[in-house]
Amino acid sequence: MSRRRASFPFGLRVWCKPWAVALLLAGPLAAAVALADTNAGDSAGADQTLEPVIVSAEKRELSLESAPVAITVLSGAMLDQSNSTQMADLNGSVPGLTIAKSSGFERIVSIRGIGSETPENAYTTQPGVSFHVDGVYIANTISLDQTLFDVDQIEVSRGPQATVFGQTSTGGTINLISKQPELGRYDAYVDASAGNYDLLRGRGVLNLPLGDTLALRASVQGYGHEGFATDTDIAGFRLDAADDQSGKVALLWQPQQDFSGTLTVQLYHAHHHGDEQKNILDPNPDARTVSQDYPSYFELANQLYYLNLKWELPWAELKSTSSWQVLENHIQEDGTRFDSAHLGFFDHVQPWDTWMRDLTQELSLVSHPGSFWDWTVGAFYLAQINHQYVYESSNVVAAPYLLYDNDGHIDRHSYAAYAQLIAHLSAAWRLTAGARYNHDAYGGPSTSYGVTTNDRYSQGVPTAKLELQHDLSAAAMAYASYTRGYKPGGVNDNPGAVLVPELYRHEGINAFELGSKYHSLDGTVQLNGAAYYYDYQDMQYIADDPVPFKYGIDNIPTAQILGLELEGAYLTLENRLRIDGNLSLARGRLIGDFHTLDAKAASTIIAETPACQFGGVYTSATCHTEVAELAPNTDGNLVPKLPQWQGSLNAGYTASLGSYRLLARLEYIYRGGFEYRIFNDGALDHVPSYDEWNVYLQLTPPGRHWNYQLGISNLFNVAGINARYTDPYGTGQTSDQYIPPRQLIGTVAYRF
Predict the structure, then answer these.
(1) What is the pLDDT of residues 199-209, one digit of tens each?
(2) How far is Cα 685 from Cα 674, in angstroms, rounded to an integer?
């Protein structure tokens, strides 16, 4: 297997379209604009605004316009208006963000092409985009399946967050900020929704002051709908059916002005029919009809307990974030995504069970502003216990049809220390420098086919950041940054493999970014932008091996990515018309000779290699050598999950109808096409683009207690393909997963 670095092969071909050149010449380079609507229940019928938004980027509260980070803020109101019920619904709403479904139960998040190419390995590998809830690091990707609930805003920071967020933030970080208790204010809110596909949703919120120093916020949600897809082989069975319940209780204690503590409990339970995964060999042209003879189910139970403490010291703010996380996930699925009558064999996964227990602790100390130096120091610790059990049966092997089984127990320990300094060189110039040391260790026994191995991995890696920021005027700023990001490596449990290594290396990224932000002093215009170049090293991905069942994780030596992002908002007609939009343009390629196999290529080559016949694939070194020599070269392939074009445009207008207020909002989303895997294998990997239109109406009577809403998502019922997934194990079948069909949802809300 040869590994060679090479120069960027495609030059500026990506920029050759005339309208792309016009965009390059037209305005500032890109970051993110806040969609600063407040919660629909809080602002019913109000005129729209471009109010300043506070974000928690850099572990320091900043206004969005002053933060030298490419960051987008999505309010809870905007999520409701777009019928965004899961993280996967955010595609097109944030520049550079792609959330792809995987294997019916995972959500693979990529930002600017950096994320995870190791699906179905949640208990051994780390994501490339970190996910936080109220500052708590969520140490798994399965939790991204949860229905969104009681959201204040979602902050999406793009680019490596190498200093204050660390090793799992190679592509960026997503921080979900939930609604918090408020002292001295009684508030209650309920709503009920109904729609097609028998959709029912109920939500209730209570904020209750308990004296002068305590406040309680309790919120609940029930959500469910019939399946979007029909299974013709199982009478009455529909896929993509949802049934989940969420609950949260948060207790705020503030005995004095300079100290507060919030204890939060979040509980979530989902029992779904599995995601629709339509095999590309299925001859039925109806995207919402499948033929599968084994039912798929998904069950997830999450418990999240966390304590946020904050002390205002005379010279700094001290924060402590502690959490205990419990996850239990059960999956049953048709491994072929097709029935045996068509394929001639079956593959059943029953069960695929995952149990996780996580303990996290973070301390940070942030200086008060106003001096020459602003500084942040902190430390983070994660302890995780993980148990996964998989049993897969298929008649491609002899009775009792055991194709694969694994009982793995992994413990993980990560710790980090970080520091960041901001020097105020003048009233207009600031220089930021930061560093972090990350250490990861994991391992444990894993048993397959009665054989137990016990591998361990441990490594420490530093990361760093350097940034220069300049205030161009009272309304505009620009910044330039260099960041070194990192994601841990690990161990493959594959003794005897020929191509796939025993150890896979950690990922590294050198990220260079130029950005600018503009906000008009009259509060009617926001325009932000960023341009970036990434040198991405040792991208982790799933590789197959000539020796059966010796697959594992390997590293692509080099990838290079270029991108441009624009985002803006405009308010006019006496604050009654608000227009928001974003556009991202990106291109990336794998660089240098690198030969590797996926399950499809391996099976094809083995079938055509005489030395591999009659059991030779298990025993013949000649077979293994010949297959390895024929492995395809990835040089020049496109970076996966990186749409070349992506964006959205929406307009909201508020009108007075006598004493009533009407908000009408129209949204257009374009999610560009991309390659799903590093192999770029034609129809198996290319995910086509799609368009989506959403409509939202909100009517508020006088008095503002009642509120009526009507939403239509995917107005033209487009069968857009979210992901095209090829099983890297087992059968190697390829299937499509779709965005939800057209949904009509009516809501009645009342605020007490």
Answers:
(1) 999 999 999 99
(2) 8
